[in-house]
Design the sequence.
């Protein structure tokens, strides 16, 4: 898949995602193989103060649970 097509899709969908979710800002990334091929940022990191960027660090909340679980299971499998 052409990464520019993904970027265009992100650009089309992001306003609706922000509207429906009520989030002030989002970042989106896509990878192919072992590499990140497209990154985008939309909206605000701090409402009225700072734009969202692809380098913005934000709270992960429950997003970290699947990563932590996968890492723990890899350790269990290794013994």
Sequence:
């Amino acid at each position: 898949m052409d990464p520019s097509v993904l970027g265009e899709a992100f650009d089309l969908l992001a306003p609706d995602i922000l509207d429906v979710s009520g989030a002030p800002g989002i970042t989106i990334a896509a990878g192919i193989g072992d590499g990140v091929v497209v990154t985008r940022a939309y909206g605000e990191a701090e409402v009225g103060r700072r734009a969202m960027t692809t380098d913005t660090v934000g709270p992960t909340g429950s997003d970290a649970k699947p990563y932590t679980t996968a890492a723990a299971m890899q350790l269990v499998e290794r013994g």
In short: The chain has a mean pLDDT of 91. The first helix runs from residue 3 to 21.
